[in-house]
Design goal:
The protein is of the alpha+beta class. The protein has one domain. 16% of the residues lie in helices and 47% in strands. The chain is built from two helices and ten strands; from the N terminus they run αβββββββββαβ. The strands form two sheets. It has a six-stranded mixed sheet with strand order 1-10-5-2-8-9, with helices on one face. The protein has a four-stranded antiparallel sheet with strand order 4-3-6-7, with no helix packed on it. Strand 8 and strand 9 form a beta hairpin.
Length: 173
Amino acid sequence: MRTILAILLLAGSAGAQSAPATSDASPVCASLPNTTFEVKTDNGGHNASPVAGKAIVYFLQDDSNFVARPRPTTRFAVDGGWVGATHSDSYFYFPVDAGEHHLCAIWQAGGLDAAVRSGAAHFTAEAGHVYYFRAQNSSRQDGVRTIEFGRVDSDEAKLLIRQYAFSSSSVKK
């Protein structure tokens, strides 16, 4: 009986030592400061090339299934800090270092319930590569509004970018 108990205790402590570490870097949009962005868009084509040691992340806002008005402004964060915002079928890009990154997208206040309208994703960037993430906003006639946030295929993203406006944003003061 003592032998079985000793084995169970050793197995339990070994399991505790090999358990995966939790990351404080996981984005929780609600824990970010309630920053409000002013967004401007233009229809000129904007493309980025990665700089040495960095990758590029494109953020796209797809409102093709958002029938309500006004359309949301979507804020994006990388590793717990805001990097910009989009509005109504637009995009922007942001350079990141190689390595693991945690992203989130959330609707900016303005008549939309931002507390429930958020999404998160993570990925590992390689220097010199380009990554695409889409916030696909939807609304229905019955008032239900959702956001789906995730990585999008590069070919699909390039098609959308040709149709979308380029977004530049600044923090409202």
